[in-house]
Amino acid sequence: MSGKKLVVLGSINADHILNVQEFPRPGETITGQGYRISFGGKGANQAVAAGRSGANITFIACVGEDDVGRQVRHQLEQDRIDVAPVEAIAGTHTGVAMIFVNRHGENVIAIDAGANAAVTPDYLNKYRQHVVEADALLMQLETPLETIVAAAALAKANGTTVALNPAPARSLPDELLSCIDIITPNETEAEYLTGIAVTGEEEAHRAASALHAKGIRTVIITLGSRGAWVSVEGEGQLVKGFRVEPVDTIAAGDTFNGGMMTALLEGRALLDAVRFGHAAAAIAVTRPGAQPSVPWREEIDAFLAKQ
Ligand code: RIB
């Protein structure tokens, strides 16, 4: 385990997953198969990826006062995560995600925030000391934006590295972007933030430059199986991903983020940390579901040793 401390602030969901041949069209009813409920939420998935990769990690989040909430909190502890700042909120349910996975392994997701909406600036304030003392803070966009803005400002003011995975896609205030040290959009999210459609390396370079212009030093645009465009202060390059046969891509980006941040906090160079994240994500896409697919450190090291 790295001595450096990572805090993840984010969401927890119960994922209701159904496999379908093709996604249903408006007005269409189709029959799927393999219905299951497993633990997810972009925040929790990233926390689990970090915990299983060996990070020293604390998670700030909320669950509902329900069975799923109790079970997921217990599971997060098994995944070597400090869950002291994960509270059960009375009168609400644990967040929910409805997910279709098609025969190509692609997914569409709709979420109901539930207890994730209770991660307010006041809630953050209760646990602010974790952010102040952390080496890095990793966030996504499934918690209230005002909390993310407050957490980024708190981290920035205290010398904590701020990493943002801007998923799901939405536009963001410059006030937030100027506090971010590392941003990890996928192609869609990069287009949302910059207006530049990322169709190749040239466009990735331009989108990264637009994000650098907002004050972000490190921009990592994930490109699915092709890898990631990694740009530091305008110097960019493609770091290729690993070829695997995907089963489903749920939480691939989350696993990348959690793994990469763990490797960075261990002192690895950025490109090496990105490669570590790619390896973790490559394993995850060969398995179904979100958290059930996230690999442990020994698996990632073994995968990398074989390359
Ligand atoms: O990134 C995948 C996650 O998005 C799922 O686990 C689901 O809960 C949604 O938050």
Characterization of this structure:
The chain is of the alpha/beta class. The protein has one domain (9-305): Ribokinase (UDP-N-acetylmuramoyl-L-alanine:D-glutamate ligase). 36% of the residues lie in helices and 24% in strands. The chain has helices spanning 42-53, 67-78, 121-126, 128-133, 145-157, 174-177, 187-194, 201-212, 252-265, 270-284, 297-306; strands spanning 5-9, 13-19, 33-40, 56-64, 81-82, 86-89, 95-101, 107-112, 136-139, 161-164, 182-183, 218-222, 227-232, 235-240. The strands form 2 sheets. Strands 1, 4, 5, 6, 9, 10, 11, 12, 13 and 14 form a 10-stranded mixed β-sheet that branches. A 4-stranded mixed β-sheet has the order 3-2-7-8. 51% of the residues are buried. It binds alpha-D-ribofuranose (RIB). The site of alpha-D-ribofuranose (RIB) has 15 residues, from β2, α1 and β8.
Helix count, per DSSP? 11
Question: Which range does the strand content fall in?
Answer: 15-25%
Mean pLDDT metric: 97
Q: How many distinct folded domains?
A: 1
Using DSSP, what is the number of strands?
A: 14
Q: Which ligands, by name, code or SMILES, are bound?
A: alpha-D-ribofuranose
Label the overall shape: globular
CATH level 1 class label:
Alpha Beta
Question: What is the CA-atom radius of gyration, in angstroms?
Answer: 18 Å
Oligomer: single chain
What is the element string, with H for helices and E for strands? EEEHEHEEEEHHEHEHEHHEEEHHH
CATH topology: UDP-N-acetylmuramoyl-L-alanine:D-glutamate ligase
CATH architecture: 3-Layer(aba) Sandwich
Low-pLDDT residue spans: none
